[in-house]
From TrEMBL:
UniProt keyword list: Membrane, Transmembrane, Transmembrane helix, Transport
Gene3D superfamilies xref list: Amino acid/polyamine transporter I (1.20.1740.10)
Compartment(s): Membrane
Name of the featured protein: Choline transport protein
GO CC term (a single one): membrane
Chief location bin: membrane
Alphabetized GO MF terms: transmembrane transporter activity
Membrane topology classification: Multi-pass membrane protein
Record carries keyword Cytoplasm: no
Transmembrane segments: 43-69, 75-101, 122-146, 166-183, 195-215, 235-253, 274-298, 329-352, 373-393, 399-423, 443-464, 470-489
Length: 504
């Protein structure tokens, strides 16, 4: 009986893959009839989408403080290298699965395809909902950083200006509204902008290195940069270093982004793994090199930690010029806002994919396409951003814990299907352009171990002793998300959830 069931499941998977290849050949008219997304991305624009979503050396500017608190320069530099190896391991296993099952649904679709028949519906439903939550947190994090950067620029020039939380919130709503309209109506343009942003990021990376190293009046010794361990977290040096390394994983958030536009690119089985690999490779090189150069020009790490926006502090200290600091701040605003645009594209396709499979309330309404784009599904993310903003005003501690859910939940969605392959067998995987071959089991095992271990570390507070404001409420926030997901499943949505239906 079990053998028959396994054969049926394998047949279902082959059928889905076959249907998927048929969909790739649909005509433009069919794609625009409200059923399918338009093929609007090339391999280059997919790489650009992935890189500018992750954009490690730029995005990690908002996360410098934690590794610096937990050990200074050595933890920052070696933490980025170690976390790069960890992320490459997880990404290799995930890229193989994305090659086997390319879909806008990404992780939840993959989970459905590799989990056992009896549990795949509930596992995919959980993965889909937790994916929406981590995308929501990531979008809020990037948007609020843009807002804080913009308002801190005002403070830089107008000393009498007092930044209030509600100022940040209103600007956040405005920027998200513009991003929603742009992602809904002009996704093709965002794809082209992404290519420009890719080259702008690389050019800015080179210019930033030259600027910091050539103009800065202060230079640190290599001993101070690579060996001066400064742990001010309160934890023991060993555990502090582990926490710092775990925080460096933030630099590589978003490496799954290419997966969610796989239905809009030709030959996704080949192109998605390529985009993931190039994105991650460029990300590791740029973030490590840039942060090494940063440490050579910052004489006082503790002062940098205490600054409201560390990246502004870097340029203020290194360049000693408000004009130069403003120019670089505007550059960061542009690139960070491009991440927000990408995340609205990202989230719209994720929610739309979930809705076409009956995975959210009123799925038939939100699965509709307009302009070959998931406008209504993307509107859900806009509404969620308005609600998250209220949390920012009510409690910065609660908001920070919610944002921390981004990496925690992302890791879960990336390792769940790999754990399923590890314990259920890799024989079920269909023919794919990218295969790990004989290294598959080892990669899946390491990815699962890395994901579990570092998620445990991420749940620890950064500072010790722990106070009410410094406490890490990540597990509490995750538990609330889990309760909401269970409620959604039991309220009837779970019964209507069909799982991926790529056939006609």
């Amino acid at each position: 009986m079990e053998s028959t069931e396994n054969k049926k499941e394998s047949s279902d998977r082959v059928s889905v893959v076959g249907c998927q290849s048929q969909l790739e050949g649909k005509s433009e008219t069919r794609e625009l009839d409200g059923m399918h997304l338009k093929k609007r991305f090339s391999l280059m624009s997919m790489i650009a989408f992935g890189f500018t979503t992750m954009n490690s050396w730029v995005a990690f500017a908002s996360g410098l403080a934690v590794p610096l608190v937990c050990g200074g320069g050595p933890v920052l530099i070696y933490g980025l290298l170690v976390s790069g190896v960890v992320t490459c391991t997880i990404a290799a296993g995930f890229a193989e699965l994305a090659s086997a099952f390319p879909s806008a649904g990404g992780q939840y679709h993959i989970v459905f395809m590799v989990f056992p028949q009896k549990t795949r519906h509930v596992a995919a439903f959980f993965t889909g909902w937790i994916s929406v939550v981590f995308i929501m947190a990531a979008t809020a994090s990037c948007s609020f950083f843009v807002c804080e950067l913009m308002l801190n620029l005002i403070s830089l020039w107008i000393e009498s200006y007092v930044l209030e939380a509600w100022h940040v919130y209103l600007l956040h709503v405005l920027l998200c509204g513009v991003a929603f309209i742009s992602a809904s109506r002009f996704p093709d343009a965002i794809g082209r902008i992404g290519i420009v942003a890719l080259w702008l990021s690389i050019a800015g990376f080179i210019a930033s290195l030259a600027t910091l190293l050539a103009i800065s009046e202060t230079k640190q010794s290599s001993t101070a940069v690579f060996t001066n361990f400064q742990n001010v977290s309160g934890w023991g040096d060993g555990w502090a270093a582990v926490i710092g390394i775990a925080s460096c994983l933030w630099a590589y958030c978003g490496m799954d982004a290419p997966t969610h536009i796989s239905e809009e690119v030709p030959n996704p089985s080949r192109n998605v793994p390529i985009a993931i690999g190039v994105t991650l490779g460029l990300g590791i090189v740029t973030v490590v090199v840039w942060n090494i150069s940063l440490l050579f020009v910052v004489p006082d790490i503790l002062a940098l930690i205490e600054s409201g926006i560390p990246i502004l502090g870097v340029y203020e200290v290194a360049l000693n010029s408000r004009v130069a600091t403003t120019i670089w701040a505007v550059y960061y605003i542009v690139l960070f806002y491009n991440i927000v645009l990408n995340l609205f594209i990202f989230s719209g396709r994720m929610i739309w994919s979930l809705s076409r499979d009956g995975g959210i309330p009123y799925s038939s309404y939100f699965s509709h396409l307009r302009w070959a784009s998931p406008v209504r599904a993307t509107a859900i993310m806009f509404v969620l951003q308005i609600l998250v903003g209220l949390l920012y005003i009510a409690s910065r501690t609660a908001y920070s814990s919610f944002v921390g859910l981004t990496l925690f939940a992302l890791n879960i969605t990336l390792i769940l299907p790999q754990a399923a392959l590890l314990f259920g067998g890799r024989e079920s995987l269909p023919k794919r352009a990218f295969s790990l071959g004989r290294f598959g089991y080892a990669i899946n095992a390491l990815a699962t171990l890395f994901g579990v271990f570092f998620n445990i570390v991420l749940a620890f507070p950064i500072n010790y002793p722990v106070t009410g404001t410094s406490m890490n409420y990540l597990i509490v926030v995750f538990a609330i998300g889990l309760i909401v997901t269970i409620f959604a499943w039991s309220s009837g949505v779970g019964k209507r959830f069909t799982g991926p239906q790529l056939n006609e």
